[in-house]
């Protein structure tokens, strides 16, 4: 399965390996490439580049392309003025959002059981409100999208789903893992089932799961959580028939990661296969077009292409963007966004996640009575565990670190992902777990009252200090709570308490749940990066409900009084989330 990669690796031509970087982001000459995209985005008619590529066409793509050609012929060799472009859009496009119809999940009901386990009355009332938010985040794609997919950037999906919220109007891949876990607690089994079916449908259509439900996400994925979604659903339903039906598709997705996202690396004379994020599309992202163009200004064509591929790989990692992916000219984990080299890094969290996928696939085969296939996945997990230990584990520091393929060395900065193998239980010796807890305690990352920051570097990017993200809190807390020591489990509870307090304080101030929070803010939303902080918010709600379920008997809302009449320094209006 990795023969091709081995060849490429030994010939040191890793970047160009096995592919054609000139692939467009998708086949649409309106949403992914071409003069309309270029002119509309560079004219900056909208605050967010995602706005234009989410608009619906009023006529067939050929007709709209021809109309634009005619308009350009009237004014040859000039960029059309903004007013002309706006007029063109008014005639040929509809506002984003027209692909959905109102939909309230029919399996939503009052008072799911888990609420009863929450002792603190404030927290219980709040959990009920979070539970209610699923109703405003439900979306159903209109039949028109199925009949005329060419008029939409929206990818048709057979079942309704829950979206993250804000600018994220469509389904997202890794977000949905925490959303589904929340839905299962909310006893919305049918909605969860439908979302998983959508992802299975996407694997069958594309061979993998795109980042989100838009054509401009068609050539990149996101952290592979589908197998864990199925595991969550199976634990809630014990539905073996569903498992039997889903399993071949889960294996197909696993095959994509092993075939298209793996590299062989030799450490201490032994060869190991590990995975990375890697997208062979060397053009600006349509939904962040001008950011990508501006960032690449002044670079050679080859460097531009490489940067755009690595930005896409950064988006595929879910950590878009982060100092974690920087490699400067000296090969150090240092620099700026322009030095993003995601594809040249073997990430700890991706490999931990694939290790957990391998173990989970083995367990599915075992449940279904196929011992041979179970044994094959057990062997894959054992090989992965060995590779993670040989390449990513650092005995002296007592944690796992991303591996730099250019310098053949590890990156020793603190990132929350350095603890991911704890969560996946992807290590052989129990003392490695205890060492990792010591590493965390001395890292400096536990000193903040409002959660664990993504990193300790203030780069201005979203996936760095001072932002704390719900999925990362959940992965860390579950990792610690898996450990046998009382000390680690107490720490897990303390972190859950801090996180719940942060979410709760923000909710009391703003009446909203946010995609991320500031570790210093006592309920302040996070910031930085390419867009304003978004509210809604799928994974935040899912993680809060999970922690409230797991620790509901002991969590408290605290005695902190929130002053009334606080000013709301929010740029986004709540109505955005209802679009
Ligand atoms: C563009 O111009 C051609 C030639 O005049 C015409 O046949 C065609 O209908 C025009 N297209 C649109 C969409 O207006
Ligand atoms: C537009 O540019 C092309 C190529 O640069 C040139 O051949 C053509 O004459 C120009 N047209 C006008 C009207 O200036
Ligand atoms: C994966 O890589 C193979 C070549 O090794 C290629 O044929 C295939 O199209 C790739 N799959 C996807 C989904 O990109
Ligand atoms: C990163 O680069 C800056 C500026 O060149 C330099 O001062 C700093 O020492 C570098 N840090 C590391 C860890 O290499």
TrEMBL record:
It catalyses: alpha,alpha-trehalose + H2O = alpha-D-glucose + beta-D-glucose. Residues 1-17 form the signal peptide. GO terms for molecular function: alpha,alpha-trehalase activity. InterPro entries: Glyco_hydro_37, Glyco_hydro_37_CS. GO terms for biological process: trehalose catabolic process. It holds the Pfam family Trehalase. Keywords: Signal. This is Alpha,alpha-trehalose glucohydrolase. It comes from Solea senegalensis.
């Amino acid at each position: 399965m990795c023969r091709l990669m081995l060849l490429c690796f030994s010939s040191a031509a890793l970047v160009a390996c096995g592919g054609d970087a000139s692939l467009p982001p998708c086949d649409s000459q309106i949403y992914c490439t071409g003069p309309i995209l270029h002119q509309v985005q560079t004219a900056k008619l909208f605050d967010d580049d995602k706005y234009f590529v989410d608009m619906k066409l009023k006529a067939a793509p050929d007709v709209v392309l021809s109309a634009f050609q005619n308009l350009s012929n009237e004014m040859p060799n000039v960029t059309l003025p903004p007013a002309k472009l706006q007029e063109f859009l008014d005639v040929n496009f509809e506002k984003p959002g027209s692909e959905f119809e109102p939909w309230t999940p029919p399996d939503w009901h009052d008072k799911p059981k888990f609420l009863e386990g929450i002792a603190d009355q404030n927290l219980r009332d709040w959990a009920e409100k979070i539970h209610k938010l699923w109703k405003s985040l439900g979306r159903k794609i209109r039949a028109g999208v199925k009949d005329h997919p060419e008029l939409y950037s929206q990818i048709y999906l057979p079942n309704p789903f829950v979206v993250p919220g804000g600018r994220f109007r469509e389904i997202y891949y890794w977000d949905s893992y925490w959303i589904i876990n929340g839905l299962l607690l909310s006893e919305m089994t049918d909605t969860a089932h439908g979302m998983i079916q959508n992802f299975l449908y996407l694997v069958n259509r594309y061979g993998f799961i795109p980042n989100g439900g838009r054509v401009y996400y068609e050539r990149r994925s996101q952290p592979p959580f589908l197998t864990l979604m199925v595991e969550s659903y199976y634990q809630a339903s014990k539905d073996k028939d569903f498992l039997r039906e889903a399993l071949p598709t889960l294996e197909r997705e696993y095959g994509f990661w092993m075939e298209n996202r793996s590299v062989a690396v030799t450490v201490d004379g032994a060869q190991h296969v590990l995975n990375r994020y890697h997208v062979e599309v060397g053009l600006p992202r349509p939904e962040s077009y001008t950011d990508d163009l501006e960032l690449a200004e002044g670079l050679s064509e080859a460097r531009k292409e490489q940067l755009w591929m690595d930005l896409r790989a950064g988006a595929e990692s879910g950590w878009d963007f982060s100092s974690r992916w920087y490699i400067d000219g000296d090969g150090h984990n240092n620099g700026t966004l322009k030095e993003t080299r995601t594809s040249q890094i073997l990430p700890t969290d991706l490999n931990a996640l694939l290790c957990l996928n391998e173990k989970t696939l083995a367990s599915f085969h075992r449940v279904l009575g196929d011992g041979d296939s179970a044994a094959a996945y057990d062997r894959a997990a054992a090989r992965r565990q060995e590779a993670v230990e040989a390449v990513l584990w650092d005995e002296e520091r007592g944690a796992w670190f991303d591996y730099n393929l250019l310098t053949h060395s590890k990156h020793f900065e603190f990132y929350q992902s350095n603890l991911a193998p704890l969560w996946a239980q992807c290590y052989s010796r129990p003392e490695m777990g205890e060492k990792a807890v010591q590493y965390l305690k001395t890292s400096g990352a536990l000193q903040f009252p409002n959660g664990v920051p993504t990193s300790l570097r203030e780069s201005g990017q979203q996936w760095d200090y001072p932002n704390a993200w719900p999925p990362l809190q959940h992965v860390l807390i579950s990792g610690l709570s898996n450990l046998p020591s009382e000390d680690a489990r107490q720490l897990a509870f303390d972190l859950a308490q801090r996180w719940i307090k942060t979410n709760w304080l923000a909710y009391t101030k703003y009446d909203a749940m946010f995609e991320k929070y500031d570790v210093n803010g006592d309920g302040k939303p996070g910031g930085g990066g390419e867009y304003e902080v978004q509210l809604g918010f799928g994974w935040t709600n899912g993680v809060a409900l999970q922690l409230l379920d797991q620790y509901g008997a002991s969590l408290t809302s605290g005695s902190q009084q929130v002053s009334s009449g606080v000013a709301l320094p929010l740029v986004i209006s709540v109505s955005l989330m209802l679009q």
